[in-house]
Amino acid sequence: MSQTWRTGILPNLSQSDRQQVENLQQPEKVARNQAIFSEGQVPKGVFLIVSGKVKIFATGDEGKQQIIHIAKTGELIGFRAMFSEEQYRVSAIALEDGAIGFIGKPEFTQFLDGNKAVRNAVIRELAKELGERAMYVTLLAQKTVRERLAIALMRLSEVYADEPINLTREDLANYVGTATETLIRLLKDFRKEGLIEVQTRKLRILDAGGLVRIAG
Amino acid sequence: MSQTWRTGILPNLSQSDRQQVENLQQPEKVARNQAIFSEGQVPKGVFLIVSGKVKIFATGDEGKQQIIHIAKTGELIGFRAMFSEEQYRVSAIALEDGAIGFIGKPEFTQFLDGNKAVRNAVIRELAKELGERAMYVTLLAQKTVRERLAIALMRLSEVYADEPINLTREDLANYVGTATETLIRLLKDFRKEGLIEVQTRKLRILDAGGLVRIAG
DNA sequence: CGCCTATTTGACTCGTCTCAAATAATGTGG
DNA sequence: CCACATTATTTGAGACGAGTCAAATAGGCG
Q1: Nearest CB neighbour to A61, from listed B1, B85, B89
Q2: N or C: which end of chain B has fewer CB within 10 A?
C-alpha cells in the first residue's frame, strides 16, 4: 500500500489549457462554513477553488460526516457528479473565507470536446482518484485509528503545505473516521511522543518520520 | 446514503458499440484461482470477462485482502489503472473457471478516440464508481460489521442474480472488511434469525427486507 | 482413504465508542 | 471592547464490538 494522494486535474494541464479553464469562470467570495454544493442536489457545473480550502464529505445515517477530501486553492471540485449525471453524493463546505468560481456544464463539456489533452486529463484524474480511493477503503478496513491518524496528518500536511493544519477536532475526527473523543486522546499521545505540536486548533508536525513509522 | 452499486461500461453502450468492443478481444480460458492481473504490474490493456466471476482486491500490509468488487460476466476490468497510467493498485483473481478476453491499450484507446459515445461512457463509468466508492468509505467508517454484512449480502445477491452466493468464508469476510471468525458468527446469527439459508459455501437470502432493516 | 484446507467454536483481550460532565475557546450584541 | 452565550475541547468512567489465538471439526481434493 503506497500512498500517493490526489493531485487534481488542473496541475496536470499545460499553462495555456489551465488558463483557458480559468477563463471560463468568475470568482465569487465565499465565507467560512458556506455550502458550495450539497448531497442530493443536481450538478449544474463544476467549481474552481480560487482561494481557500473546502471540505468534501459524505453524510452517514446518523448525520455524521465522513470527510473524503480537503480540497485546496486551484482544485476543481464537483466534476464527479457532473460527469456521472447523478445527484451529488457528497457535500462541499468552505473551511475558510475564500473565493470560488463556477463553470457551467455546457461551457465545460464543450471545452472538453474540443480539447483532447484536457479530456484525457479528466479521464486520467478520475481513474487516479478511483485508485486512491481503493487504498482508502483498505486503510479504513484494516488499520487502527492510531495508524489512520498518522496517515491523515501526513496527507493533511501536504494540503496545508507549510502552514499549520487548521481543523476543528470534529472535522479531523471525521477525516480519520473516528469519534471526536478518541481523536483527542490520540492527539494527546502524539504530542507526548513529540510527533506533533498543538496550539488550540493549529497543528504542526514535528517528526514526520515518526508518523511514517506509526502509519506502517 | 443510498446504495446503487456499479454497473460497468458495456451495459450502457448501444448494441453496436458493445459488439465492437467485444470484437477487439479473443476469449481465453481461465481456471478458478488464476490471477488475471496483480498489484504493482504495469497495465497493458483491459480485460473482458466473457464468463465467470472475478474478485478485485487490494492487499493490506499484513497480506490481508480487501475485496473491492466482485466482477461478473460481461464486465470490463482493469481499465482504471490503464487510464491513470499507473501500476495496478489492486489484483484480480478468477473465482470460478471461466473465460476472459484481453484488449490491448493501443486498440482500446484508438477505439475510444474514434467513438465519442464510448468515450463518454467511460468517463461516466469512472465518475460513477468514484461516487460509489465514497459511499463505501462512509459505510466502512460508520457502520458496524453486522450492518456491513447485511449490505454486502444484498450487493452480492445482485452479482449472483438467482444463483446462490458462493464464496469462501474468508473471501466474504474480506469483502465485508472483518475477521473470518467474526463473519462466521454473524452468519450464524443471520441464519438463526431466518434471514439467510446456508449450505456449506452456498448462501441464499430468505428475507431481503430483514437485511435492509439491519443495514439501516 | 487420508492429507490439507476451510470452517467452526470457545475464551479472552483490547481498542474504540458512548455518555456525562467540566473546562476552554470563540463569537456576538450591546 | 467587555460580558455573556454558545460552541468546542477535554477528561473520566464504563460498556461492548470485534479481533486474536488456539483447538476441534468438517469438507474437499488428489
Answers
A1: B1
A2: C
- Calpha distance A28→A34 (Å, rounded): 12
Q: How many CB atoms lie within 10 A of CB A57?
A: 22
Closest in B113, B127, B135 to A126, CB measured: B127
The DSSP result for B36-89, as a single string, is EE-TTPPP-EEEEEEES-EEEEEE-TTS-EEEEEEE-TT-EESHHHHHHTS--S
DSSP B210: H
Strands B27-30 and B98-104: antiparallel
Averaged pLDDT in 10-residue chunks for chain A of 216 residues:
60 88 93 95 97 96 93 95 96 95 96 89 93 94 97 96 95 98 98 95 96 94
Residue with grid cell 445482485, as numbered in its chain: B158
Neighbours of B174 (CB within 10 A): 25
Q: Which nucleotides of D are covered by protein (CB under 7 A)?
A: 8-13, 17-22, 27-28
> Do A8 and A125 form a contact (C-beta atoms < 8 A)?
yes
Spell A71-102 as b/e; 16+ CB within 10 A means b. Answer: bbeebbbbbbbbbbebebbbbbbbbeebbbbb
- Say whether residue A89 is in contact with chain B using an 8 A CB cutoff: yes
Q: Do A58 and B1 touch (CB under 8 A)?
A: yes
